[in-house]
Amino acid sequence: MTASAILFQTFSCKNQKEKPVQEETKEIASVEEQLYRPNFHFTPKIGWMNDPNGMFYLNGKYHLFYQHYPDDNIWGPMHWGHAISTDLIKWEHLPIALYPDELGYIFSGSAVVDYENTSGLAKNGEIPIVAMYTYHDPKKGDEGKIDAQTQAIAYSLDEGKSWTKYDGNPVIENPGIRDYRDPKVTWDEERQQWAMILAADSEMMIYTSKNLIDWTLTDRFGKDVGSHDGVWECPDLFPMTIEGTDEVKWVMLGSISGGAPNGGNGTQYFIGDFDGEKFTLDDSFKTALAEKHDFWIDFGKDNYAGVTWSNVPEEDGRKIFIGWMVDGHYANQVPTTTWRSSQSIPRTLRLISENGVPMLRSEPVDEVRNFIDKGLEEGTVSIKEGEEKILGGEDIDYSKARIAYTLPSIDEISYTFKLSNEKGEELLFGYNSDDKQFFVDRRKSGIVDFHDEFAEKISVAPRLSEKSVHDAEILLDKTSIELFFDGGSTPITEIFFPTTPYDQLSVISENGELILEDLKIDQLKFD
Ligand code: FRU
Predict the structure, then answer these.
(1) Cα of 33 to ligand 1 centre, how many Å?
(2) Do 330 and 231 fall into the same domain?
(3) pTM of whole model > 0.85?
(4) Which atom of ligand 1 is nearest to the CA of 109?
(5) Which residue numbers delimit the Glycosyl hydrolase family 32 N-terminal domain (predicted)?
(6) Are residues 91 and 225 in the same domain?
(7) Which atom in ligand 1 lies closest to the alpha carbon of residue 234?
(8) Which residues, at least 6 apart from 441, have a Cβ–Cβ distance to it below 8 Å?
């Protein structure tokens, strides 16, 4: 079953299953706020959230919209919630940007800054921000009609504060495809046109336009490429330069509702060329795909539907990505009541060439480092085989911390970090040199029984770097861990729900002498 099908199904039986938010007691809310409201990850103030949508940057502000149902804590009639930030870490909530209407719910989509007013939507010299999204007609959906999803636009003439839906909506009718959604628009500088990619069943469709209103279908991609163990959703398509070269490649992201490395939802990527109409896989990427593996933006269970910000200034030059930090299979059941789910830390994507194959790396945006309060420089720590060493001391609050270290050589080393509390709840993560895999084990991490798929297995992820030297940067919040191994070549994102905060960190050397160089355990500061 697709992620949306699971969410939609839960929605239709919500009245028998769940109490509305308003009935929850204040007591539960405050315990939950304290225990589970993240310190530095974006969450909706109240109600349900899923995919990040419509992200753009303008005049010092990063805008983040998101799939939102404000009236309950489970998936429902979709709105676009809205928040802004000057640093990608601290967010200010703004009023809901788009409400469902007679054409349907407002599903996922994107937004661009239309500097040249190509859309003609500005009449008095303003710069329109144009959002493109999918309408999902719930009535047609419930009746099983194939054409419930169409594409539409809305615009803002005041830098994103208020939004008007275009009166000629939908701008693209449904061509007879049930899952037909999530338009992501990019400015194609070379051809001076807009390019848009959307997910259609189990492939991508690419359209182009001169005015953001009239769209021409130019390509269908992906039928026989990558994983097809689910419906394709939430794509992205954008150019990037391979680091250290002048070579530009186009990166395609595509979320898939099943078949991710550790089961459930995940996001694949493809690297290739775009000639203004068609996307073609890069030859070496194609060979690697055929020979080796699928390419994933994250290997953990909890990073889905991620896309990138538009209009980040050229002098900044970053491609900044954010994903929904939960798996759709259990998103409706995670143990919070007043709100549900959070977004990942925004990440900088880099395109590098590894043995001639273009590959993505992702790392937390640098802005996170501005929140380092005090760094505990542990220096070099060595731990003998079989030993467990407690790190960090008692005054570290692991619900807002950053850990970083380097191993001079990882070849024969296996290690396990353990984050635990006095109730014996523990989160384990580390590396196993026997199978060259990283792992996160949340089987005893606290509340795990809200869904069978949450903690049935240890999550594993391949070590993709072939270098002997190994590094890691790890971000810890109240309910999430984001691990960026080997310069972000293997990112893993997972969530957890301890019944009391973890307050001890230790590391166990499973195999050989573990040498952690430049070990840093940084306390992050958030009010
Ligand atoms: C992905 C998704 C999108 C859709 C949205 C609906 O999680 O299913 O494909 O637009 O959620 O909320």
Answers:
(1) 26
(2) yes
(3) yes
(4) 10
(5) 41-353
(6) yes
(7) 9
(8) 427, 428, 429, 458, 459
